[in-house]
Amino acid sequence: MTTVQPTVTGIDQFDPTRLRMARERLSQASVWLMRNEPFYSVLLMGLERIPMKGTMGVTYGKLFYDPDFVLDRTEYELHFVLMHEILHIVFGHWKRGKNFPHDIYNQAADYVINNIIVKAGVERARSPKGASVSYNMPSDGLYDPIYDGMITDEVAALLMRKQPPKGGGRPCEEGEGEGPTGNWGEVFKAEGKEGDLTEKELEKLESDLRKQIVQAEQTAKSRGNMSTTLRESIDQLREPTTAWADKLRDMMIDTIAKDYTFERPNRMFMESEVIMPTVEKYGLGHVAFFVDDSGSVSNTEMSQFAADCQFIFDELAPERITVIHFDSRGAEPIEVEQGEEFKLERILHGGTDFRAPFRKASECGLDDEIDVAIVLTDGGDYNFPDEPPYPVIWGTTGAFMQGNPPFGDILAVKFQHKGTWS
Q1: Cα–Cα distances in angstroms (integers) from residue 7 to residues 53, 55, 68, 134, 270, in the given order
Q2: What is the domain-level CATH number for residue 384?
């Protein structure tokens, strides 16, 4: 059940031996996360740990735990509960759902989170490495595969439909809903200096959280230990923006060759005695797309890359494009001219080396032909080539592993709704 604030008990109210043992259990679990689930570990390190009476819960920046609850969990259950609590923070449940009763929203959040963790465990067990899964959901956890892929609000809406209609039947009591309510894992409302968060305070927390999530993603990706299930769930959090399309258009327009011609007089001055020229545009010329196909790039990211490339090809109409897919090596260039069909699809799935597409372009004699290159990546590498003889735009869905590229402009690739430019 989601409550407003936890009841924090003074340290002196706990048995010192059990409190010390609980802290050791949490430290051991943190080490396990660091080795096996680094995404969660990075975020856990930023949480203040506070003893309380109850089970375990979170709000922004804080992890609350009852020593007895921690000690009563098996090692595998404690791993699961910690991952569960961290995802409550990642998905912003500490902001509270405004359109649903607290108990319904909390149940929905639990269904979403537990589905993600269970599905990621199945993915891990079926991986080529055959990795063992060292976490188990407690028996009273809420889980139903029917909610797979849904966001919290969607699940909450479905749960609300299963409640007795107004004016008939038994009303839903606090804590009731579909199926059993897990008696662990509470989410507490985040508060500001003077009670409810102000809009400015909320924006600051959300901004800080986005940075923490990017850092956690990059750490997990650099170690090759982030499930596709978790990656794609995190991708759903990213908000669409018009800035990408507008800024890209502005940057690309600067590369368009222009001249003035009197062959087609300017129609705005047709009634004037003075003949004015029109601006003759030659198009974007030759645009190269260097597309990161490495394993760390999710299907959602690849779909976004395809949408961005299609937008540039259709709306900005380059004379010719060259696509070089890359992971640790560069694939053979794919040439497409205006009037031809263009579709971007993943063809590689290995590691990442930013030098690979630039090397391939040079080997194929394209250095003097490319007018601008756009690298679409998740930022998962730190090996940069020497600066090429053409301008470069780095379109990235995340932070670069060890600092920004030494050349070129950087644009954040945001995600769209339903495949349309918003």
Answers
A1: 7, 11, 16, 31, 78
A2: 3.40.50
> Residue 416 pLDDT > 60, yes or no?
no
- DSSP string covering 137-159: --TT----GGGTT--HHHHHHHH
Q: What are the backbone angles phi and psi of residue 33, rounded to the nearest 5°?
A: -60, -40
Q: CA-CA distances (angstroms) from residue 403 to 39, 41, 95, 383?
A: 19, 22, 32, 11
Regarding whether 356 and 273 lie in a shared domain, the answer is: yes
DSSP string, 320-357: EEEEEEESSSBPPPEEEETTS---------S---THHH
The 10s digit of each residue's pLDDT in 19-51 is 999 999 999 999 999 988 999 999 999 899 999
Sequence-separated (6 or more) residues with CB below 8 Å from residue 397? 238, 301, 304, 377, 378, 379, 412, 413, 415
pTM of the model: 0.57
SS3 at position 384: coil
- pLDDT value at residue 241: 40
- CA-based torsion, 97, 100, 104, 110: positive or negative: negative
Angle at which helix 102-125 crosses helix 228-235, to 10 degrees, equals 140
Report residue 272 CA to chain centroid gap: 56
Instruction: Give CA torsion, residues 308, 305, 412, 350, to 10 deg.
Output: -160
Q: How far apart are CA 395 and CA 307, in angstroms?
A: 13
Q: Are residues 221 and 111 in the same domain?
A: yes
Last residue of a domain, one of 231, 251, 268: 231
Mean pLDDT for the stretch of residues 253-263: 52
> Distance (Å, rounded) from C-alpha 41 to C-alpha 31?
8
Residue 422 belongs to a domain: no
Q: Which two tokens stand for residue 275?
A: 């003949």
- pLDDT tens digit sequence for 155-195: 887 888 776 544 443 333 333 333 444 567 788 888 887 77
**Both ends of the chain: CA-CA distance in Å?**
36
* 189 vs 233: CA distance, rounded Å: 22
Would you say how long the chain is, in residues? 422
Task: Determine the structural domain holding residue 371 and report its residue range.
Answer: 243-412
Give the span between the Cα atoms of 84 and 75, in whole angstroms.
Answer: 14
Contact assessment for residue 413 and residue 396, using Cβ atoms and an 8 Å cutoff: yes
